[in-house]
Amino acid sequence: MLIALTAFLLYHFGSHTAAVTPVLDRTAALIQKDVADQARRKQALAIVDRMKATIKACAAQRSQSVASLNDLLAKRTTPASQIEHAAQPLIGEDRATAERLLDLRFELKSVLTPDEWAKVLPPPVTERTRTKKTA
Amino acid sequence: MRKVVADSARADKLVSLTNEFQTLVMQGVASARDYRVKVAALDSNYEATRADYETLIDQQDTARETFLKKASVLREQSASLTTDAEWEQLKKARLRVLETDLEELNVRRPGTPVVLTSPPPYS
Fold first, then answer.
1. How many Cβ contacts (< 8 angstroms) between chains A and B?
2. How close does chain A come to B81, measured CA to CA in Å?
3. Closest-CA residue to B85 (of A5, A4, A76, A69)
4. I need a surface site. Which of A11, A66, A124, B117 has the fewest CB within 10 A?
5. Domain assignment of residue B2, yes or no
6. Which 28-67 residues of chain A touch chain B by CB within 8 A?
7. pTM
8. Residue A72 CB neighbours (<10 A)
9. Cis amide bond preceding B119, omega within 30
10. Do B75 and A126 count as a contact with CB atoms less than 8 A apart?
């Protein structure tokens, strides 16, 4: 359960960052393609770059918290309360990153029109829509 | 489990705790996957508000706090039923089980950037 818990905590406590992260390379490519106005296109691409940088910085920051957590999990006798306490920085860092990404999401909205937004961030393809397309 | 822990009473309890942990992992992954689908839907919605996101994020924070508490307690209970030597031997088996669970849910190896929908939602 030691490794299992470590692995799952790492997965679970990055959920906001990963979830708020759209597929940024694809988004950038669609901005290049679908935003005709050069000045706004440039602004939008810069925002996407800042999103990428935010995610990268978060990953670097997390490594220290992960190391501390791993040290505790390596000891069989570490109490549950100590593990919960050590996981708090991971939760806090993920939440803070999510908030920064949200700032950038709404900054991106401010430079794109609704039509451009629909092209650049199309609705996710769900299993249902995928089935319909292939039917 | 029973190969590592010879005492059948302790082994029974450990199997039960492991099953509980596996169920918890499956629920946690499913919850996170659902969360990401909902966030992706907000991402594509030009009119989505910050409050829409905050509500979703708060819900997920509550869910993962609950997961953490339950998982930590299960781990503590398992640890108290094993010796250091048994614990070490059980590590490898537990990791294999977790990896199988995550693969079944289309999740990449933990500790790497996770993409929960495969193929990705914007394909």
1. 142
2. 10
3. A76
4. B117
5. no
6. none
7. 0.78
8. 15
9. yes
10. no
